[in-house]
Amino acid sequence: MHDPATGITARNLGPADLDDLHAIGSERSVVRQMGGWPWPPRRDFTATRCRPYAGDGFVWGLDRGGRIVGTVAVTRGELGYMLHPQVSGQGLGTRWVGLAVDHAFATLPLTRIDASAWADNAASAAVLRKLGFVHWQTRFEQAIARGFPVASHHYRLTRATHDRLRNADDCRKATA
Questions:
Q1: pTM for the complete prediction?
Q2: What's the pLDDT tens digit per position in 130-171?
Q3: What is the set of domains in the chain, with CATH numbers?
Q4: Which of 90, 152, 165, 169 fits a disulfide with 141 by CB distance 3.0 to 4.6 angstroms?
């Protein structure tokens, strides 16, 4: 999938993406917000992520000009994403998370998508709320990169809410 507005193509990850993905995984500001990535960074761990996802859902590498600048995934009904700090703040998170959610509901037999954000990750929580996700639970969970439990806000978007919001957006665009 290519998005001309952002100049990004979503594609499967592969071994050739190791350097780019490891560069993202070596950014403390990114990894501290990820639930399952280690700190300090480990190249062998990153290598395990550099292959097409074969499970329930999808993982997209976000390719801009032949370089991976982030990832977005819906796996087993859960949403996850990360962006290199050099491209953060450009609206890419909202745009590509939205495209991934649309794709997931269009192609997977899901009734809902769940996501979470650490309590101190206001930017990620804002992306989720913009797309219609609703907070439903907060609990402490182990943050691997931080080395201690952190409050984690859990969000949920149902298919019915997604469809209602998409239909409202389509109507607004048609009358604009």
A1: 0.92
A2: 999 999 999 999 999 999 999 999 999 999 999 999 887 765
A3: 2-175 (3.40.630.30)
A4: 152
